Amino acid sequence: MSKILIIYSSVHGQTRKVTDYLKQQLESYGNEVTCASIDEAPALDVFDKVVIGASIRHGKHNPAVYDFISRNINQLSDKVSSFFSVSLVARKPAKNTPETNPYMQAFLAKTTWKPKLLAVFGGNLDYQGYNAVDRNIIRFIMWITKGPTAADTKVEYTDWDKVSQYAQQLHQL
Ligand SMILES: Cc1cc2nc3c(=O)[nH]c(=O)nc-3n(C[C@H](O)[C@H](O)[C@H](O)COP(=O)(O)O)c2cc1C
C-alpha cells in the first residue's frame, strides 16, 4: 500500500475526471490516494508517490505546473513520480504516446524533472462549453486536423481502458 498524491491542472474538468478515475482505481488496489488541484497541493513529504496531470490549452500546459515543479524539484526527483498530459491532439493514434505527442515532448524539454512514468490521454471536446472565441479557435484547429467542426459536437476522446492500464502501472511502480 502506498500513499499517493495526484495533483491536477484542469480548466474544463477532464483532467480532474481522469484524476478521480485514477483515485478510484488505485484505491481498489489498496492504496491511499489524495487528489489536489495544482493551486492547493499539500506538502509532498508524507507521500510515497506523486503524480501530476495537466491539460493543454492553446498549445501549452498551465505555467503553474512548471512553477510547482521547479519549487518541488528535489522532492519530486527523490520520490516515485509520474506525469500525464491531456489534449485533443492525443486523440490521434499517431500522437497518443509520450514519444509521439508533441506536448509531452515539449514538456520534457522544458523541465529537469524526469518522471518515472509518462502517459498521454485524449481530452474532451464540447464546443457549447466554450466561449465564442475559444469555440472558433478550436473549430479551426479541428478543421485543420480533420476533426469534427459542427458547433454542437460533444465527444470524449479519453480512452478509459488506457487510463486503467496507467493506474495499474502506477500501482506497480
Ligand atoms: C481554450 C482551449 C484551448 C485548447 N487548446 C488545445 C490545443 O492547443 N491543443 C490540443 O490538443 N487541445 C487543446 N484543447 C483541448 C483540451 O486540451 C481538452 O479539451 C482537454 O480535455 C481539456 O482538459 P481540462 O478540462 O482538464 O482542462 C483546448 C481546449 C480549450 C477549451
Q: What does this entry look like structurally?
A:
This protein is an alpha/beta fold and 173 residues long. It contains six helices and eight strands. Strands 1, 2, 3, 4, 5 and 6 form a six-stranded mixed β-sheet that branches. Strands 7-8 form a two-stranded antiparallel sheet. Helix 1 (14-28) crosses helix 6 (160-172). It is globular. 32% of the residues are buried. It binds flavin mononucleotide. The site of flavin mononucleotide has 20 residues, from helix 1, strand 3, strand 5 and helix 5.
Task: Note the main attributes of this structure.
two-stranded antiparallel ribbon; single chain; 2 domains; Rossmann fold; binds flavin mononucleotide
Furnish the topology, listing elements before pairings.
Blueprint: E1 3-9, H1 14-28, E2 32-37, E3 49-57, E4 60-61, H2 63-71, H3 73-78, E5 80-87, H4 102-110, E6 117-122, E7 124-126, H5 132-144, E8 154-156, H6 160-172
Parallel strand pairs: 1-2, 1-3, 3-5, 5-6
Antiparallel strand pairs: 3-4, 7-8
Helix pairs in contact: 1-6
The structure holds flavin mononucleotide.
